[in-house]
Amino acid sequence: MRSWYLIVLAAGTFTLGMDAFVLTGLLPQIAHDLSVPVAVAGQLTTIFAATYAIGSPVIAALTGRWDRRILLGGGLVVFLLGMAGQALGPTFAVVAVGRILAALGAAAFQANAYAMAGVLAAPERRGRTLAAVTAGASISTVVGVPFGVIVGQAIGWRGAMWSIVALALITAVFIPALPKAHIPPTSMRTRLGVLARPQVLAVLAATAIVLLPVYLLISYLPLVIGGGSTAGLLVVFALLAVGVGQVAGNRLVGRLIDRRGAVPTLLAGSLGVTAASAVLILFQLWYPATLLAVGLIGLFSGLTITPQQHRFFSLTPDVATIALGLNGSAIYVGSGLGAALGGIVVATGGGFWLPVASAILAALGTLVGHLARVPA
Asked: Is 83 domain-assigned?
């Protein structure tokens, strides 16, 4: 598989990743502008995640015979239209509709980016190839998100949305240069039938539960660091720490999977998130320690997604691409539930309790990952 193919696919995941985390960094500003509480504004993440989780398998079933390039390019176009709707939206309801549209575009792009990478890669390099595509999202938190948050703080959160529109447009231009790729079409009945396989359900459940505490914490990061709407550059540095950690984790995960196996790598990541959340409970009011803790959460969370993608090629090679699409939905189920539960925690107890909830849920995720350790 040519390296520049991976660069194009990673550029798409970079754009989608920037969208997710820029929203986090500008949450207090968005809430103020739309005249809603921060906990309500945080549900924009839940709306996006729920739409993605439902839309991904439906889109895959309806477009099974299409060239993957059409889905990749068309998905980015729909995504950028949704982002433009958010940038122009005068009310929370309109912005929420933009989130729904952007999520549908992301669902069309992201699952097919991973599927194309997995299918075109040689088996012995599949872990590293999938990690390369995932790296786009990780790098976005190091480069794109700080830039987007600074832009948002300088000219408003809507300006940050427009910068994401521009990135999506630039990436979409290069999609037609990718090779043609067709995946055997499958009906919705067949896709849902995959869920009847216990090993598939076990992996999907572990994906959602392991990621839930990460997004519970990261979705409300300005409140975790205690800065509220005046956090300023502290939020940027915290997001940068998360991004640096994720990039480091992403650099490690491919080799760990290829050498140690997917399940041990997943459990190491989940256990690490648990430990880092516990550290954050103890030192939340001390910013340097908070910065270190969220960086470690980024690192260990970077070990949790790629193992699950890799496991499907080993566990269910006959329906691996279908399972990958469902795993994309599980990722967004985890992020959506994390944002929703984080909103409840913020509304009932305040930002101080977010690391506590994260540590408890991460410990639960480690247990579930251990119990669901079908060989891979």
From this structure: yes
